[in-house]
Write a structure and sequence with these properties.
The chain is of the alpha/beta class. The protein is built from 16 helices and 12 strands. The radius of gyration is 22 Å and the shape is globular.
């Protein structure tokens, strides 16, 4: 194994100092901005640490001929060209499968409940009214969560966490997940139902499904047609899980009461997708759609914890490689 490993941080600003210190113990650490024109460093870098905002494409990988590890502080990997990395034999380190650790990361679940409250109580539009000098109380009556039914699509770590939080508001929980048995859902206070039944029964539906080729466009037009006209839709998972044209149609035709989105399909780190997105255009003109810029996990606490956890995993992988004389 090399005595020194060169790590590139694609987004160094705000990166945990503790994580940087761990990485510096195995070698120098640079930001992408510092070295993108330095062929000598690009040729020798063997580790890149990335967050969700950067696309690790084949073109990006071609700039780093010596790369051995991509370390991403995310569970989803759709921002990485997995096939290109596999062809190069690059090891991908992520948070996927780190259930024990991930149970300590709560911000996306917290945000889901926050968006649900904002949407059902018309809080963004109430704030906007006051900013404009109006006191539109009578126009902005909302709905309470107590006694309502929340449908949780995907009952893994985040789905079950959201269900637990929602129960504290007095909500009833129905859930759909082919990988979670009825008994486990019952222990978490949820009733297992089919996908169609979930959309039909729920006063609000929240999506917590991992994006794969099988789950892409999982939520379709027919699902929105099943929903109550008074129901709400929340997505803090991935935009590609939803047929966005069908969601827009459901809002325009008042098939549902409203939606709150933390994610959109084909997100661009620079925000170029926002300027042309039909749902964004709709949100500018209507008071039943909230869109925020993928803030689910974006808390200082969770970022630091995940960056430090990933840095530790990098060190562990290198130690294992040294023991078994592989990779490096």
């Amino acid at each position: 194994m090399k005595s020194k490993h060169l790590t590139i941080l694609t987004e160094p600003e705000g990166y945990s100092e503790k994580a940087k210190a761990m990485l510096r113990k195995i070698g120098p650490v640079f930001s992408w901005a510092e070295i993108k024109n330095r062929k000598d460093i690009l040729a020798t870098a063997d580790i890149v640490a990335v967050k969700l905002g950067i696309k690790i494409s084949k073109t990006f990988l071609d700039c780093l001929p010596g790369l051995k590890i991509i370390a991403t502080s995310t569970t989803g990997l759709n921002h990485i060209d997995i096939k290109a990395a596999a062809r190069r034999g690059i090891n991908i380190i992520s948070l996927r499968g780190e259930t024990k650790f991930l149970r300590t990361i709560t911000p996306t679940a917290e945000e889901t409940l926050g968006l649900m409250i904002m949407l059902t109580r018309n809080l963004p539009w109430g704030f906007d009214a006051v900013r404009r000098g109006r006191w539109d109380k009578e126009k902005l009556y909302g709905h309470e969560l107590n006694g309502k039914t929340l449908g949780v699509l995907g009952f893994g770590r985040l789905g079950s966490m959201v269900a637990k939080m929602a129960r504290s508001f007095g909500m009833k929980i129905v859930a759909c997940d082919p990988y979670v048995p009825k008994s486990a859902m019952a222990r978490a206070g949820a009733v297992k139902v089919s996908t169609d039944e979930l959309f039909r029964k729920s006063d609000a539906v929240t999506v917590h499904v991992l994006l794969t080729d099988k789950t892409r466009a999982l939520v379709k037009r027919r699902h929105f047609k099943l929903m109550k006209p008074s129901a709400y839709f929340i997505n803090t998972a991935r935009g590609e899980l939803v047929d966005e044209k069908a969601l827009l149609e459901a809002l325009e035709k008042k098939r549902i009461a409203g939606a709150a989105l933390d994610v959109l399909s084909n997100e661009d780190p620079e925000g170029r997708h926002v300027r042309r997105h039909p749902l964004v255009r709709y949100a500018k003109r209507h008071q039943n759609l909230i869109i925020v810029p993928h803030l689910g996990g974006a808390t200082f606490e969770s970022m630091a914890k995940t960056e430090e956890f990933i840095a530790e995993k990098i060190v562990q992988v290198l130690r294992a490689a040294r023991r078994y004389d592989r990779m490096f």
